[in-house]
């Protein structure tokens, strides 16, 4: 099937529309979060980006640990509230990712390392390894790291106790 000049021109336009939509989501989220920071009398700078086909907003500042909470529970809730604010403005479901003081970035690094280390252990032993229960976000990071190491993984269990099982290459 041959592509036409119209098809070739439409692809960059569609990509520009997608990026513009995600940037709009980031702007809406930043406005919402800025108001929230003002109400809570917290100092924080906002950074808006588009990464991995989603809007990403980061809040950085002196001490924002209260916005992260224990094990990121407050951060998860804040992210959902921010997604709802975006939905209210756009009418479309958002996959926006929120980070506070690098909490998610650090967690992503640790989970990628866990996936790589576990894959190496499974490759060496030939035995499957089950990890502790994780959120869907955390499992995805581990699955990606295991795949990058050339092994296979799958999720098992039932929410909220779903976990990753890393399998040998021949399994």
Automatic annotation (TrEMBL):
GO MF assignments: DNA binding
Pfam families: R3H
Coiled-coil region(s): none
R3H domain location: 105-170
Keyword entries, A-Z: DNA-binding
Region (Disordered), start-end ranges: 1-20
Database matches in CDD domains: KH-II_Jag, R3H_jag
Gene3D superfamilies: 3.30.300.20, R3H-like domain (3.30.1370.50)
Record-linked InterPro entries: Jag_KH (IPR038008), KH_dom-like_a/b (IPR015946), KhpB (IPR039247), R3H_dom (IPR001374), R3H_dom_sf (IPR036867), R3H_KhpB (IPR034079)
Protein name per the record: Single-stranded DNA-binding protein
């Amino acid at each position: 099937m041959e592509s036409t000049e119209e098809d070739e021109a439409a692809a960059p336009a569609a990509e520009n529309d997608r990026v513009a939509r995600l940037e709009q989501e980031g702007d809406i989220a930043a406005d919402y979060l800025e108001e929230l920071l003002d109400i809570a009398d917290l100092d924080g700078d906002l950074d808006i980006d588009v990464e991995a086909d989603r809007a990403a907003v980061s809040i950085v500042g002196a001490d924002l640990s209260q916005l992260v909470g224990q094990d990121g529970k407050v951060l998860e809730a804040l992210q959902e509230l921010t997604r709802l604010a975006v939905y209210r403005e756009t009418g479309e479901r958002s996959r926006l990712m929120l980070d506070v003081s690098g909490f998610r970035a650090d967690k992503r690094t640790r989970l990628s390392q866990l996936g790589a280390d576990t894959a190496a252990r499974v490759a060496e032993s030939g035995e499957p390894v089950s990890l502790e229960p994780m959120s869907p976000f955390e499992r995805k990071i581990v699955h990606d790291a295991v795949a990058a190491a050339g092994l296979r993984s799958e999720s098992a269990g039932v929410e909220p106790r779903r976990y990753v099982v890393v399998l040998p290459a021949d399994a």
